[in-house]
Amino acid sequence: MKKLALHWQIMIGMVLGVIFGLLMTNVSGGANFVKNWIYPFGKIFINLLQLIAIPLIIASLIKGISDLKDIAKFSQIGGRTIMIYLFTTVIAISIGLLLVNIIQPGDGISQDTLNNLSATHADNASITNKIDQAQKTKGAGPLQFIVDMVPNNFIGAASSNSNMLQVIFFTIFFGICMLLIDVKYSAPLKGFFDGLNEVVLKMVDIIMLMAPIAVFALLANVIVTTDDPGVLVALGYYTFTVVLGLLLMICVYMTFVYLYTGKSPIVFLKGISPAQLLAFSTSSSAATLPVTMERVEEHLGVEKEVTSFVCPVGATVNMDGTSLYQAIAAVFIFQALGIDLNFSDMLTIVLTATLASIGSAAVPGAGMVMLVIVLEALNLPSEKLALGLALIFAVDRPLDMCRTVVNVTGDATVAMLVGKSVGKLGDPKVKDWDDHYKK
Ligand code: ASP
Questions:
Q1: Cβ proximity of 208 and 288 under 8 Å
Q2: Which of 14, 15, 106, 296 is positioned for an S-S bond with 332, CB 3.0–4.6 A?
Q3: What topology is assigned to 70-170+229-421 in CATH?
Q4: CA 344 to chain centre
Q5: Residue 430: is its pLDDT beyond 50?
Q6: How far is the CA of 292 from the centre of ligand 1 (A)?
Q7: Which CA distances in Å does 154 have to 157, 177, 416?
């Protein structure tokens, strides 16, 4: 019997997870049951994906660079990747600004809703925590982000998934030096890393067998931990504006893929869909990275030389969904508080949201931390910061799930565009026994 395609299995897991979560919220002790007995399966899945992220980046980047055999080609890939990343981020922010200024979701927020949201959330520990985290980032000097990219200890860098850029830096340096030494010394190393790369990709396949059950657990947990659904209605226009912007951004990606690579946008979406569904369920581009890389390479046909660089860098610095959300959220907060923004404020948003999305970590809720920086650049009085975040806090998790989908889709799009531009985009090469896939 032909097995159901992976993305359908994951989708069924998600729908059942939502239904189960809703049922459990109405059963006494149900929420605790989900937290204690169901959610751990989702957490194990996320841990497994995070566990293989660093080995995968190292193995595939070294394999990618050594297969290129040409340092000039690598710098070409690097330059184009960064340019296109910036370009798509600015498009995302512009879409966000356009929508929020047309729809004006903040204007309809009543004083009652404002008081209500501020009473429930303004003292919320996780909001004050986010503001504190943002202050730490802001205190750093202008070149700090480059300093942060260069680790002083490799083991230290590889010991935390939040240091991905440091690991990428070391690995590129290592890979380039492998090209510069005599082949009699580099050949055994290359053999080792090629083998490691195959093993880690097989680990992705095996972990993915668990995906439908894991997303069931993750979504059931999201449902039982969501507070007051009534707030979703009060913030309906805001939520609608962000979701509409994110959908438009996906259309932009599909158009770029079609116009520049000539590939069908539907085939593109189908190929990347398991990564999108995982991004939605985990709210983390970093946790989704192994699956993104595998899908882009094996199902979209981008060669490893490109995916091994574009995807890990993208997971950390390219967050179009996050920057679009930051632009909308910032203007929404000012609208709701009745403070006018002018055109130069809009330009400030373009600049700061671009930098903020680069600085956001690829983990759940990170976009909201960096939103603080955007709000401060717009001179929101500091005593209003907590209130501003309180306004959007209740819907942050569902919007985080949606924006992470766009972040991951953006990385895949740029991988295809860069791949095409350097002649490294071919036909998909789905391996046997891949993600339940039967040819
Ligand atoms: N959760 C997002 C990501 O991992 C970041 C954010 O917007 O909070 O891509």
A1: no
A2: 106
A3: Proton glutamate symport protein (1.10.3860)
A4: 29
A5: yes
A6: 15
A7: 5, 16, 31
User: What does the pLDDT read at residue 111?
Assistant: 78
- Token pair of 229, please? 């659904």
> Which of 242, 291, 400 for mutating ligand 1's site (highest number of atoms within 8 Å of CB)?
400
Question: How is residue 34 written in tokens?
Answer: 């989900």
pLDDT at 431 over 80: no
Q: Which residue has the CA at smallest separation from atom 1 of ligand 1? A: 364
pTM (2 d.p.): 0.88
Question: What are the tens digits of pLDDT across the range 76-110?
Answer: 999 999 999 999 999 999 999 999 999 999 887 77
- pLDDT tens-digit series, residues 230-248: 566 668 889 999 999 999 9
DSSP per-residue letters across 172-212: HHHHHHHHHS-HHHHHHHHHHHHHHHHHHHHHHHHHHTTHH
Phi, psi of 398 (to 5 degrees): -60, -35
Domain ranges in the chain? Answer: 70-170+229-421
Integer angstrom CA distances of residue 90 from 53, 319, 320, 324: 28, 11, 8, 9
Which residues sit with their C-beta closer than 6 Å to ligand 1?
Answer: 283-285, 319, 322, 360, 362-367, 400, 403-404, 407
Buried b (16+ CB within 10 A) or exposed e, 337-353: beeebeeebbebbbebb
Placement of tokens 């600049």 in the chain: 351
How far does residue 249's CA lie from ligand 1's centre (Å)? 16
Distance 285 CA to ligand 1 centre (A): 6
Q: Whose CA is nearest to atom 7 of ligand 1?
A: 367
Q: Which residue has the tokens 């993750």?
A: 218
Residue 113 has pLDDT above 80, yes or no: no
Q: How far is the CA of 73 from the centre of ligand 1 (A)?
A: 31
Q: Supply the mean pLDDT for the chain.
A: 88
pLDDT higher than threshold 60 for residue 438: no
Ligand 1: atom nearest CA of 357 is 7
Q: Say which residues have a Cβ less than 8 Å from residue 133's Cβ, sequence separation at least 6.
A: 369
- Do you know the residue count of the chain? 439
